[in-house]
Every structure is written in structure tokens, then in C-alpha cells.
Amino acid sequence: MILTVNNVSFSYGKVDALHHVNLRIKQGQTLCVMGPNGSGKSTLIDTILGIHTPKEGTILLDGKDLSQFRREEIAKHVAFIPQTHGITFPYTVEEAVLMGRTAYTGMFRAPSQQDRQLCQEALLRVGILELKDRPYRELSGGELRLVLLARALCQKAPLILMDEPTAHLDYRNEMRFLEILCQLCIRDGIAVLLATHSPEHAFYLESRGVDTEALFLKKGVPIRMGRPENVITEDVLADVYGVKARILSEDGQRAIMLQRSL
Ligand code: ADP
Ligand code: MG
Q1: Whose CA is nearest to atom 9 of ligand 1?
Q2: Residue 105, pLDDT score
Q3: 28 conformational bin, left if phi > 0, alpha if psi -120 to 50, beta if neither
Q4: I want to staple 25 with a disulfide (CB 3.0 to 4.6 A). Which of 3, 4, 82, 231 is the partner?
Q5: Is 38 touching ligand 1 by the criterion CB < 6 Å?
Q6: Dihedrals φ, ψ of 91, to 5°?
Q7: How many whole angstroms separate alpha carbon 106 and alpha carbon 174?
Q8: 42 lines ligand 1 (CB under 6 A)
Q9: DSSP one-letter code for 89
Q10: E strand or H helix at 244, and its extent?
Q11: Ligand 1 atom 20: the closest Cα is on which residue?
Q12: Could you tell me the distance, in angstroms and rounded to a whole number, from the CA of residue 40 to the centre of ligand 2?
């Protein structure tokens, strides 16, 4: 098991943010974590990254307790695509992607030829090689996401945590992002935790043959977990999001048609 979260609870002072969360992600699998704003998706990711210490429960990376890892060691096991990324230094895209290698090279050592090769491969894979010399801070929100994906690939970690990664992407880039995600799981056996606002992402991945699980959080409480087709139902969408929606199916892929708020 690449990631095991056992009975984890966490609170910010008196505000409970995660209640007895249990989940497991194995090689090649994507877990889609869903729930309304403030349901604890980002907190769960930060806890897996070791930024928050659970009040209760344990987190294992490759079977080893997270509390036994040094910080730079965690980066060899987990890559992270954050929701916002406030780099203010005038880095180029290439330099930003090379930061994915700092777990291996250390902060202050120059990147090796192999690091540059991995960076080049990641940029090609994501289809943004032409952005290589552009200043990172001048990118659009969508380009930035793709650069962060390239940085995560460059890190060569077996698990990637993604916090609403397609939030700023146009349709084509969203599609490309999901297609790359499928390849990463199916071809490379990468494990992914995807926090998303679109249950349709889970349907898409499932329809493309990715081993996909869905988890709904409501106020930090895991309320449903399982295969997307079993878990993402009209009743659950009403309960979790307070919307009336219909689930349609065409060409082996499910889609959600929103109808009204409840
Ligand atoms: P999501 O990512 O699902 O939108 P979050 O994990 O960001 O949810 O937030 C979960 C809960 O924790 C919310 O009630 C939020 O207000 C609270 N919260 C998040 N970050 C902090 C913080 N730094 N301090 C206090 N409360 C926080
Ligand atoms: Mg969030």
C-alpha cells in the first residue's frame, strides 16, 4: 500500500476539520476526494504531507509511519500540486520544474545533467516544453497548473497529491490534465489523491480503466467511499452538495446534469 490513513482526526484549535478518516491508496490507483468547500480536503492533503500532525490516528507512506520520516525524505515519497503557488522570485519555468529535484539534490546544489534530463522529459510529457524559458510568475493560471504537474513528475514520487488541479484550466487543458493522469496511473503505476470539485472526474477516470475510488467528506466526516458508480449517486449529490442533479450515461461514461439547488 502506497498510502494508508488510519483513523485520522485533526482540528485547528477548537475547529474539528477531520474526523476518523480511513483510506488506502495502492499503486496505479486514484482516489478522488470530494465534498463542499470547507469539508476538509486540503486539510487532509496537508496532514498527509506532514504539515499538520494528526490529533489521533496514523499515516503510513509505503508502510512506514509518517512521523518517522525526515521532511526531505517525505518528498521522495509524495509530490504535491498545490491549489495556489506564490512563487515571487523571477524563476524560469525550467527552474521551477527543477525544484522537483531538490529532494535529491538538496536546496543549494546545482542540478545535474540527469536532473535536467528528467525536467526536459516532464515538460515534454505535459506538452509545455515551449514554456521552458518563460518567467514562471508571468504564466496564466492554467499554464501554471501544467508547470506544477511537470514539477511533480520531475520529483519521481510514487504518490502525487493534487488539490483541485483543474480549477483554472480551460476544457482542453482540463482534458489533457486528465489524460496525463490516466497515463500516470495505468502506464507508470503512480498513485494519486485528487481533491476535486467535479465528481465527473471520477466517472471519467473510471471509464478510462483507471482503478478509481471516490470519497465524500462532509464537515471532515467521511460519509461515503467506494467505486464512483456506486458512491456518486443522485441521493449522495443531494445530501453532500444540496443540489438536485441527474446522472446520465452515454458511451460507457457517466455525466452529471445539475438541475437546481435544494
Ligand atoms: P476544503 O479544502 O475542503 O475546502 P479545508 O481543509 O480548507 O476544506 O477546511 C476545512 C475546515 O477547516 C474549514 O472549516 C476551514 O474553515 C477550517 N480551516 C482550514 N484552514 C484553517 C486554518 N488555517 N485555521 C483554522 N481553520 C482552518
Ligand atoms: Mg481546499
Answers
A1: 38
A2: 72
A3: left
A4: 3
A5: yes
A6: -75, 155
A7: 32
A8: yes
A9: S
A10: strand 243-250
A11: 43
A12: 7
